[in-house]
Design goal:
Blueprint lengths: L1 H15 L8 H61 L8 H11 L41
């Protein structure tokens, strides 16, 4: 058994190009284990670097796309303003361009969204949401059938 292990170790020495009589078994396998550990860490580092590069690339592309869209919106807005300024000079196609702007939604894009109201506080409810307007009947609600 011992001779078989020595024979296998010598064949490992010839495969990995080291002298099995100079390098002991523990040192060889210790070096092999440290190489494996460092190799796995290098693979993980390369993977992280690749992910970071992709993330930076996606962020850059998204920023460029947002800038292009912003410029396009500004150009459309400028065209609408220029069209309104030229109203006295060129009357043909004004209604068509206005209808096109309304249908495409270009006239409404830059408006901010309104915050929705609470569902239980509709303006038609019999009990007002302002306590001073209830005139002493905060719990008494009139039902309309």
């Amino acid at each position: 058994m011992h001779k078989n292990m020595q024979k296998l170790y010598e064949s490992l020495g010839s495969y990995y190009a080291f002298d099995p009589h100079v390098l002991c078994v523990e040192d060889f396998f210790g070096d092999l284990a440290s190489f494996r550990t460092l190799f796995v860490e290098a693979v993980k580092d390369n993977h992280k670097k690749r992910e970071m590069e992709e993330k930076i690339k996606r962020a850059r592309l998204a920023k460029e796309k947002a800038e292009r869209e912003k410029q396009e919106r500004q150009q459309k807005k400028k065209q609408l303003i220029d069209m309104n300024k030229e109203g006295g000079e060129n009357e043909t196609g004004v209604m068509d361009s206005l209808m096109e702007a309304l249908q495409s939604g270009a006239a409404f894009r830059d408006r901010r969204k309104r915050t929705p109201r609470n569902g239980d506080q509709s303006p038609c409810s019999p009990v007002s949401r302002w306590p001073g307007a209830n005139h002493g009947n905060p719990t008494k609600a009139v039902s309309v059938v």
